[in-house]
Design a protein that fits this description.
Radius of gyration: 24 Å
Order of helices and strands: EHEHEHEEHH
Distance between the termini: 64 Å
Strand content: 5-15%
Largest sheet: 5 strands, mixed
Shape: globular
CATH superfamily of the largest domain: Resolvase, N-terminal catalytic domain
Number of domains: 2
Number of helices: 5
CATH topology of the largest domain: Rossmann fold
Structural class: alpha/beta
Strand order of the largest sheet: 2-1-3-4-5
CATH class of the largest domain: Alpha Beta
Length: 159
């Protein structure tokens, strides 16, 4: 099973190479190490794409930290879901994560991605509910609907 390393170089003036990160990945047993430079103007990660292309199913992408995968949770989740879809494993040095031993990390990420996808649907439903409530007398209309629903539940319990 091939192991490939990947890290991102922070957008610090004068930093073009991070030998410490590359050395850590080589010590983890990586056969190849790829990197990208963080850019303030956008997300461009040709090094990550080359790292993923170098792996066959069941291969391992090793990173020093989750920060190597992205600058925010959405970017990290995007990479993790790509790994899972391609039947690749992830090894993170800090915090220690190894999906070869515990695939639960992927399952948790899938649940979080589903939650994030449902967020837009919930927002639309809430907006529609508020609009409907405003047509029925604003927040009073919403409260009245909630009370009548609660009264109906009480009536069902009495029966």
């Amino acid at each position: 099973m091939k192991r490939v390393g990947y890290y991102r170089i922070p957008p610090a003036p004068g930093v073009f190479f991070s030998p410490a990160q590359e050395e850590r990945l080589l010590l983890l047993g990586c056969e190849q190490v790829f990197s990208d430079r963080c850019l303030a103007s956008g997300v461009v990660r040709p090094g990550l794409e080359r790292a993923l292309e170098a792996l066959e199913p069941q291969g391992v992408l090793a990173v020093p930290s989750l920060h190597a995968l992205g600058g925010d949770l959405v970017a990290v989740m995007d990479v993790v879901l790509k790994l899972h879809a391609r039947d690749l494993h992830l090894v993170v040095q800090q915090p220690p994560i190894d999906t070869r031993e515990d695939p639960g990390f992927f399952e948790a990420c899938l649940a979080l991605a589903a939650f994030n996808g449902e967020r837009a649907m919930v927002r639309r439903a809430e907006t529609a509910l508020v609009a409907k409530g405003s047509r029925a007398g604003g927040m009073k209309g919403l409260k009245a609907a909630a009370q009548s629903s609660a009264e109906a539940d009480d009536q069902d319990e009495e029966d």
